[in-house]
């Protein structure tokens, strides 16, 4: 039970999930995940900020009870409606029948749709910049659409310099005892932040940038996201990290993702890596798409400057795992990358090269180099790979200088 008073009368009442294998049924959770919820107490009223996933509702009620045992909860502020935060809303409404749910028009529509909750005075609809007074303490709401859904908003407590930021600045990794960054080693959470951002929020970079600009002037000592640590000491580091990713700015490095049934495409991938290493590039990450976890491939592709994708031809198409990966790239509107492709065929020379080119065109990524191998690496392949590696590294240098 990680109850924690963050500042006077603002409490953490979130829960850990160390059971779920895949977040959103997709993304592995090697370190678990936390669903963060908070209580803000004023002299007169008490507000709960967001709820938690349904599986952890019992622990959640224990946490709330230990803070608010002798008081009712007057408001439930819903910053985000994804069910990892909203699924316990019906239980909260049942336990506190007079509670008013605070949200914008989109939030309220979604609650009705997901949970069929209605009734007079059930909702308090707020607009951008509106506030509610809890008695000596004010909650102000800022709409931040598409960070991560259209209804997303953030809640600021000005006197306490606290921002409840929803999924923004969130990260995978359960909370192992401590809640605030200054009380723990945050290396795992920071590294998981890359994966969380890339997989969950990645598509919405321009909206994240807008939100960061909008909130830049707010007094801030604590950022309280819906997943992972409460940020205090590391606010600058974390905001910069997210702003960098939102702008699709990357670190120098080469990521090679390939799919190979019988090892011939894999052999070319190894040759490419060796040649690129020989040209002095030290950060090279290789992913066999049949073996690597999709979330790790997406994260590395987001984080590093250069993406090389290789595929065997599979019934005239990309190897299925490579196709999934390219779909993930397109979905997330990956940009500002050096991009190169290699492919392997036996009887359909242009099929896979063409498919990768189509992705590149839709994503507006220039193809810096492209290599086609028939069946297996032959006498001419080493020279072709050398040339391919030179073109890739040249393009990397041009991008770094730009
Ligand atoms: C199930 C299967 C389907 C394939 N479909 C095609 C195809 O449609 N066109 C083609 O040129 N080669 C096709 N191939 C051949 C391979 O793409 C490729 O030439 C060979 O498997 C070498 O790649 P790998 O060792 O990396 O898997 C197919 C191979 C397999 C096993
Ligand atoms: Fe979300
Ligand atoms: Fe979330």
Q: Which ions and ligands are bound to the chains? A: flavin mononucleotide, fe (ii) ion
Main sheet attributes: strand count, strand direction, barrel closure? 7 strands, mixed
- How much of the residues is beta strand, in percent? 25-35%
The CATH superfamily title of the largest domain: Ribonuclease Z/Hydroxyacylglutathione hydrolase-like
The residue fraction in helices comes out at: 25-40%
Structural class: alpha/beta
- Rounded to the nearest angstrom, the distance between the terminal CA atoms is 50 Å
The spatial strand order of the largest sheet comes to 1-2-7-8-9-10-11
Q: Give the overall pLDDT as a whole number.
A: 96
Poorly predicted ranges? none
Can you lay out the helices and strands and say which pair or pack?
Elements: E1 4-7, E2 10-12, E3 15-17, E4 22-23, E5 27-28, E6 33-35, E7 38-41, E8 46-49, H1 57-68, E9 75-77, H2 83-86, H3 89-95, E10 100-103, H4 105-115, E11 123-125, E12 131-133, E13 138-143, E14 153-157, E15 162-166, H5 187-201, H6 205-215, E16 222-225, H7 235-246, E17 251-259, H8 264-278, E18 284-288, H9 294-303, E19 304-314, E20 317-318, H10 320-331, E21 338-345, H11 351-362, E22 367-374, H12 381-401
Parallel strand pairs: 8-9, 9-10, 10-11, 15-16, 17-18, 17-19, 19-21, 21-22
Antiparallel strand pairs: 1-2, 2-7, 3-6, 4-5, 7-8, 12-13, 13-14, 14-15, 19-20
Helix pairs in contact: 5-7, 5-9, 6-7, 8-12
């Amino acid at each position: 039970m990680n109850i924690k008073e963050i500042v006077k009368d603002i409490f953490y009442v979130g829960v850990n999930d160390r059971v779920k294998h895949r977040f959103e049924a997709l993304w592995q959770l090697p370190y678990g995940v936390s669903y963060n919820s908070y209580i803000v107490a004023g002299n007169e009223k008490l507000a709960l900020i967001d709820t938690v996933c349904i599986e952890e509702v019992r622990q959640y009620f224990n946490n709330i009870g230990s803070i608010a045992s002798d008081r009712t909860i007057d408001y439930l502020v819903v910053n985000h409606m994804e069910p990892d935060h909203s699924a316990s809303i019906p239980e909260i409404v049942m336990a506190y029948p007079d509670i008013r749910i605070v949200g914008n028009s989109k939030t309220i529509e979604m609650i009705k749709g997901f949970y069929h909750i209605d009734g007079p005075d059930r909702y308090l609809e707020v607009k951008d910049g509106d506030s509610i007074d809890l008695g000596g303490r004010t909650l102000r709401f800022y709409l931040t659409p598409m960070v991560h859904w259209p209804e997303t908003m953030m809640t600021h407590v000005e006197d306490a310099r606290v921002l409840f930021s929803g999924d923004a600045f969130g990260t995978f990794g359960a909370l192992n005892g401590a809640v605030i960054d200054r009380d723990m080693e945050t290396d795992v959470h920071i590294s998981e932040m890359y994966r969380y951002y890339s997989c969950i929020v990645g598509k919405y970079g321009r909206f994240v940038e807008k939100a960061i600009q909008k909130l830049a002037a707010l007094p801030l000592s604590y950022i309280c996201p819906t997943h992972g640590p409460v940020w205090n000491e590391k606010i600058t580091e974390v905001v910069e990290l997210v702003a960098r990713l939102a702008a699709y700015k990357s670190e120098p490095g080469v990521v090679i993702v390939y799919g190979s049934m019988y090892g011939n495409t894999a052999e070319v991938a190894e040759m490419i890596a060796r040649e690129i290493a020989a040209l002095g590039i030290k950060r090279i990450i290789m992913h066999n798409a049949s073996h690597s976890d999709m979330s790790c491939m997406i994260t590395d592709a987001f984080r590093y400057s250069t993406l090389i994708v290789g595929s065997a031809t599979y019934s005239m198409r990309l190897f299925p795992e490579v196709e999934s990966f390219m779909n993930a790239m397109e979905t997330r509107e990956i940009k500002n990358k050096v991009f190169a492709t290699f492919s392997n065929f036996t009887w359909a020379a242009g099929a896979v090269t063409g498919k990768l080119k189509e992705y590149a065109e839709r994503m507006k990524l220039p193809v810096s180099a492209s290599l086609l191998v028939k069946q297996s690496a032959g006498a001419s392949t080493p020279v072709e790979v050398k040339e391919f590696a030179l073109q890739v590294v040249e393009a990397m240098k041009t991008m770094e200088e730009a």
